[in-house]
Amino acid sequence: MVNIEINGIKLEARDGAMVIEVADEAGIVIPRFCYHKKLSIAANCRMCLVEVEKVAKPLPACATPVTEGMKVFTHSPKALGAQRAVLEFLLINHPLDCPICDQGGECDLQEMAIGFGGDVSRYAEGKRVVTDPDLGALIATDMGRCIHCTRCVRFGQEVAGMWELGGTGRGEHTRIGTYVADTVDSELSANVVDLCPVGALTSKPYRYSGRPWELVGRPGISPHDCVGANLRADIRGKQIMRVLPQEREEINETWLADRDRFAYLGGRSAERITAPMVKRETGWQATDWDSALTFAAEGLKRVLDVHGPSQLGAWVGDTATVEEAYLTQKLMRALGSGNVDHRLRQVDFRDQEQLPAFPYLGMAIADLERLDGALLIGSNIRKEQPLLGQRLRKAALRGGQIAFINPRAYPFNFPVSQQIVAAHNWVTEVAAVARAALALAGEEIPEGLPEAEVGEAHEAIAAALRSGEQRAVLLGNLAAYHPAQTELRAMAALIARSCGAHFGVLAEGGNSAGAWLAGAVPHRGMAAQPTAVMGRDWRSMAHEGVKGLLLLSTEPESDCIEPLRATQALKQADFVVAINAFASDAARDYADVILPPALYLEAAGTLVNCEGRWQSFEGTTPPPGEARPAWKLLRVLGNLLNAIGFEQLSITDVRDELAPALAVGADNQIPWRVPAPPSFEGGIMRLVDYPIYSVDGLVRRSAPLQQTRDAIAGAVYVAGATLTQVDLGGADRVRVMQGEGEALLPVIVDEAIPVGCVYIPAGTTATAALGGGFGVVEMTHA
Amino acid sequence: MNSMFRFLKSLFLLELFGGMRVTGRHFWRKKITLHYPEERAPVSPRFRALHAQRRYANGEERCIACKLCEVVCPAMAITIESAQREDGSRRTTRYEIDLTKCIFCGFCEESCPVDSIVETHVYEYHGESRDELLMTKEKLLAVGDKYEAQIAAARAQDAKYR
Ligand code: SF4
Ligand code: SF4
Ligand code: SF4
Ligand code: FES
């Protein structure tokens, strides 16, 4: 500890702290542009000059470490004079176009100019003119306003891990831009909009549409991945104008992924309906709630009377809130059916009985950046959970050994110690690491562990998992989509156990943990309690058929890993109630009634993230038109079907019922079981994932996100050698057959895809006609 | 004594003659009444009446949708929505002044960085319904087009005091 004095106030400071940090903690204002607590120190704007006793010249507070007995003056005539001079220089080339600048009203430069600037301009010479680079669909540029603080450059280098923006030229000729004309494609890119202290980088979708003083900020939680990032929705009237991050050090720090930030624009899609719709003989009709809900209840009742409760089922989207998932399963179980499932992207449910109460990360999110060793099995963490990827990147840059065993190689933005690409033999590759880990620990090889040849890479991974303080084995989303999920999970847990590492799961949906705890699984009730009736998982419902289906916030034609099977089951059902804000063509085809719920940010709810953290939020704006919170719709459906326990008057009543689930502790014990992995013999293997901007209905409809490079098109990505192997060399379109489905898809040659495999993304319209996820496909000429 | 004095005052109609004296004095003076509408009082260049939106000489609307007038208006009479026009400039898609709310303070004019929203000297307008007193962007621009000469002259006259 060091004793210093700022403006005569005695303060204690940490050794090595910078003057500006100490002043910030004490609430003493020092103007600044380039300093940001999450970025490295550049000290290039010179706005933070302060006077230090016994030093002849003013010093930059952001780059001056404290020393014992230091006396700092931030408001002395000398300091103020220096600040005024710096500001005058910064404003020389500034276009002074505040009235048309989106930053106006929340601009650091405006504030500094008022607080520390002169009051008249003495500059009458010509100003610099700069061209504005096109950075893509998310970020608008007005580079004339740039003050070269390099926050955006440092963010790209240090946090996003993509050196996309940089400075060229010197002095007055410095330009910030992409070195070669290119867009900015990082999944965290729009954070530079918040970082830029002036209006040089602003949000393109928000461009010119609002002013900060007319917006009301209301807190919310992002439902698009299992992080549960805290955000702030800025509302004008009843419209969401933009979404900004809310600082929450233990979850999202000060960042927000582009997906969390721009997903709300999906709510403006033309497919959004704001009044309930009923399918009659004459076609679809918009109607009022009374008749729509009665129609829905009567339809479900008919199924119940004719076919019995076992023919009734519910599919819950994994972004639905805990309350909604809970009421859905309660309704199904009150009607005598256990058929309720939210795991629509999974195919393998063999080990469901032995699983913990919810998919748990095994540690706090903030601990990810302190890992010394990690093995991720089946994860493209950077695109699946961008903010967790960013934490893991910090661990890797600190020297952590991060290894992956993935079906295909993904580009990561941090040093990866090992990336084993195992398309056909994923299970054996993981088994090899398990064997290496057991050998190092000197433990018995458990019964049934698949034979595998232990190579150097496997040994290195196992060794890295045994050294250092904090280690973890994490099971990613790709493992969840895979038919050998059970084996992968059991072996991952085994590796973690033998190495003394944490075992964790990166859940695939925004509220997977909440849906598990709410009981939206066929074999367990709320809070993982046993249920009276054992239900069927979604896949058996889809394959064996159900007569009545309730869909909650999901579009099976894109969300389900077997889209074709799912839509066929829906079409064959007698009655389908869709609680969904969007009336897509597919939904109009299979549903009998569509009840529009409020979207996220429009209604209250709770999401549970991968740490098991419950985060409740209120609606930020009323839903448009007749749309109503989904929990209310479910409650009225319950009443109309005479189900018991649907008397909740407010969402807090629903939350009160969930108290036992809240009390469930996190636990990640996965017992060993003898694996029986499925085999993929012959043919070409399809590799699958849900691209970052195809994960849910809202994201899929967000126009700006769909214009980015990460919006992966439904196509066949394949290595040239594979194409020649099946005599399709040079084809630009092929017919792909998988299961009962087939689709005509464009071919994109991508040498990163292992030979003998094709990568076909899920969650896109083009691939909705295919029969499954990971599996064997056939390809012929178009 | 007092009642005696009052009696004499009313007997000789003293108060009536006092009044007649005032009447008589003004009867011969120069008249200040105006025969409105044939005659009109002069107005100051700073006179504040019906609003207008101005254009530049090339026909381009001045307003850049900065929303300063909207936020400064103490009566909350102004409603603006803005967006990017195809040519990339910042423009209003909706600009309305509710004259039933406006208190003619002139703050909107003061705040405008491009002299777009102004108050003209037109005080003879009426509306038979609220709708007619809701000035839309089109109406405001039309007022501006019609009275541009007068608006510009008034600004020029006042310029040296600004
Ligand atoms: S664009 Fe903004 S953040 Fe980047 S250097 Fe310029 S002022 Fe700083
Ligand atoms: S004159 Fe005053 S009250 Fe009327 S619109 Fe302008 S600012 Fe508002
Ligand atoms: S202040 Fe002037 S430029 Fe700004 S919105 Fe109002 S009229 Fe338009
Ligand atoms: S904030 Fe210290 S030099 Fe920029």
Key structural traits:
heterodimer; A: 782 residues; alpha/beta; Ubiquitin-like (UB roll); Rossmann fold; Dimethylsulfoxide Reductase, domain 2; seven-stranded mixed sheet; six-stranded mixed β-barrel; B: 162 residues; alpha+beta; Alpha-Beta Plaits; three-stranded antiparallel sheet; two-stranded antiparallel ribbon; binds iron/sulfur cluster; binds FE2/S2 (inorganic) cluster
* Total number of helices of chain A: 25
Strand order within the widest sheet of chain B?
A: 2-3-5
Count of individual helical segments of chain B: 5
Largest sheet of chain B: 3 strands, antiparallel
Radius of gyration of chain B: 25 Å
Inertia-based shape of chain B: elongated
- Label the structural class of chain A: alpha/beta
Explain the overall architecture:
The complex is a heterodimer of chains A (782) and B (162). With 782 residues, chain A is of the alpha/beta class. Among the domains of chain A are: 1-92, Ubiquitin-like (UB roll); 277-349 and 511-647, Rossmann fold, CATH 3.40.50; 365-505, Dimethylsulfoxide Reductase, domain 2, CATH 3.40.228; 684-781, Barwin-like endoglucanases (Beta Barrel), CATH 2.40.40.20. Chain A has 25 helices and 32 strands. In chain A, the strands form 8 sheets. A 7-stranded mixed beta sheet of chain A has the order 14-13-24-23-22-15-16. In chain A, strands 27-31-28-30-29-32 form a 6-stranded mixed β-barrel. In chain A, a hairpin with a 2-residue loop joins strand 13 (277-280) and strand 14 (283-286). In chain A, helix 11 (426-441) packs parallel to helix 14. Chain B is of the alpha+beta class and 162 residues long. Chain B has a domain at 51-161: Alpha-Beta Plaits. Chain B is built from 5 helices and 5 strands. In chain B, a hairpin with a 5-residue loop joins strand 2 and strand 3 (90-98). The radius of gyration of chain B is 25 Å and the shape is elongated. The model of chain B has no long low-confidence stretch (mean pLDDT 94). Classes of the chains: A alpha/beta (782), B alpha+beta (162). Chains A and B meet through loops of A and helix 3 and strand 2 of B. The structure holds iron/sulfur cluster (SF4) (3 copies) and FE2/S2 (inorganic) cluster (FES).
